[in-house]
Every structure is written in structure tokens, then in C-alpha cells.
Specification:
With 105 residues, the protein is mainly α. Helix content is 52%, strand content 0%.
Length: 105
């Protein structure tokens, strides 16, 4: 029963590809809005760096929080993808990298 519930609720959420398309639409259709998002993000990062650069109080400094800025999810997805480009790793040529030998008696 749980599987059926998950299957019916998953399509309610956009995929990363859909969010990337939405981000492209915003970026091309409303470039001033997109630039405003970028400027707000950079300002928040600079303010956070200034706050935490000489942190001497007890405990950990506050974390960088974008929630109050209410960025659209499409913008956040693109920013994360740009910050973490995909890495492609290939398997070693010739099959398995491990060779198993039978002990000789």
C-alpha cells in the first residue's frame, strides 16, 4: 500500500529537468528578475562572510540561510548545479579491476 501511495504522490513534484527549463524561461524571458536573484544571492553571501570572518563567540557561527530571500526553486537548482558540476567516472578498461586467483595446492 505504501508503494502505491508513493507512486501517486511523486509526480506532484517537478523534476530537475523541468526546474532547469523553468530557470531558462525566467532567465531568457525576464533577465532583470534573474539578475536581481543573482545580486541578492551575492549580497547575502558577502554579508555572511563579513559576519563570520572574525567569529570569536562561543559556538558555531550562524549558517548561510537563503530562506528569507524566498528564491524560486528553479533558481536554487541552477545555482547548485553550477556550483557542483557533474563528474563522470569511467570503469577501468578491460572489465573488472579485481583479479581472483585460486590458491595452488
Amino acid at each position: 500500500m505504501l508503494v502505491a501511495t508513493l507512486i501517486t504522490t511523486v509526480p506532484d513534484y517537478p523534476t530537475l529537468a523541468e526546474l532547469a527549463k523553468e530557470a531558462d524561461r525566467i532567465r531568457s524571458g525576464q533577465p532583470e528578475v534573474w539578475q536581481n536573484y543573482v545580486a541578492e544571492k551575492e549580497r547575502a553571501i558577502a554579508d555572511h562572510r563579513k559576519l563570520t570572518s572574525n567569529w570569536r563567540q562561543r559556538g558555531m557561527p550562524p549558517r548561510l540561510d537563503f530562506q528569507p530571500l524566498k528564491f524560486p526553486l528553479a533558481f536554487l537548482v541552477v545555482e547548485v548545479q553550477q556550483a557542483n558540476p557533474p563528474r563522470v567516472e569511467t570503469a577501468p578498461f578491460g572489465g573488472n579491476q579485481f583479479q581472483f586467483r585460486r590458491p595452488s595446492h
